[in-house]
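The instructor's notes for this session suggest beginning with a concrete chain rather than abstract definitions. Hand out the sequence below and ask the class to guess, before any prediction is shown, which regions might be ordered.
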Amino acid sequence: MPTDPLAEFLISHAQAIVRLHQRGKAVGFDLTPADLGTALHRSVRAWDGEAKPAAIDEYLDKLRADDFVLAVACARGIERAWEGFIEKYRPVLYAAAHALTHDEADARDLADSLWADLYGIDTRASERRSLLGYYGGRSALGTWLHAVLAQRFVDLTRAAARIKPLESRPNEPATEGDPSDPDRSRYVSALSTALSEALGALEPRDRLRLGYYYLENLTLRDIARLLSEHPSSVSRRLQQTRSELKRRVERSLRREQHLSEEQIRLCYDYASEQWPFDLGRALSESK
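After discussion, reveal the predicted structure:
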């Protein structure tokens, strides 16, 4: 007889689930360990569905219990949980939205566009579908919300770009050829392609941090507040990301474009003089 994966999960990891239930003070929302089971099972599958039992117990013990329990309670429509969630995170989301849009009205529209999805829409009398059901507890809830908001901003920007008439869009700047080096445009194009691919390989949080710093011109302290990090950590991670980008770009230029060290130097030199590279677009289109 086929085994029910959820039932097997609840039985095999009952003690770890109870520990998380206690750490997250789930009784305050009248939630039982079983009430957390489905969401925890989903979180484990998203992390590593093939992990061994001991590794899964360790994973469950490391989840952010308070945030996870709050998300589950909100997803289940428990009003006092939702009220606490709004009180804590609405100002945070508005601040993050304003950092992305630089406009008060647009920021409110962007942040408000999430609330219906976070609250959940009743599809049947006793069922709701909340975006919070996708929160797995591995990162802080505030960090997860920032990532969701940033992705919503990207989606809306792309949608607006698709419906904007082509004739109203600015023309892409052209790279002027250099009579002294007929390969100039090829070098600049190769560098642009390599950088776009390197940005796409970054973790979403690293791309978000880059966008805040280079596109939104936020200070390290502002970024730290938005991402729940220490300013020194933001600075260190930006430096690590820049170093990683440089390694990836130069590796791509060597292995895929077959450029020499001198040709790579020319790529940088030409790009510093004139480079039609849109960092905002590259960050938005990166997956």
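Then share the key points. The first helix runs from residue 5 to 12. The radius of gyration is 23 Å.
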